[in-house]
Design goal:
The chain is an alpha+beta fold and 183 residues long. The protein contains six helices and seven strands. 36% of the residues lie in helices and 21% in strands. The N terminus is likely disordered.
Amino acid sequence: MASICRLTMVCLFAACAVAACQRNPAAPSNAGAGSMGAAGEVTPPAADDDQWLLNGPTACAKYLTPDEITAVFGSASGDSQPNGPHACTFSTAHAPNTDYSTINIYLSSGGSVVFDQDVDTKNGTPLSGVGDKAVRTQEDGVQAVKGDHICNIGVKPPAGNKLQGDALARKLGEVCNKLFSLP
């Protein structure tokens, strides 16, 4: 009888944990702006069959070329790493105990409805030529949507980089367009 009670408790705990995850999916821990979680918005869970999202962990290594990195930071030295199942981070090389900069790419789904609900999207500056709709965020990042796919790219810190403002948003928008062209 005691083992049946324990098994029932374990099953109830697992069911509650699954239900909680479905109601409040976690954003990546090193998230940038917008639907990545910085604004407190919750991005709906991605459909397991959306293969496009799987481009996220390798997007920094594949689509942030040395020329693009140099345009943003003035130097191409650094390292790209996966940052969750749909995200990656490029970090500049730095000496110990010094500040460094990052570019975070996070892919999600949800289309225009989710894109339009995001706080950074509402407060962003419209950016033409990227996806179906795009904005330059107030922190010099870009958020764009094409079909059901959402591309978020944030640069931290936003100040002090070689490329800033609209020029930075255009450069990051080019990366989103490359990602939108993938299956």
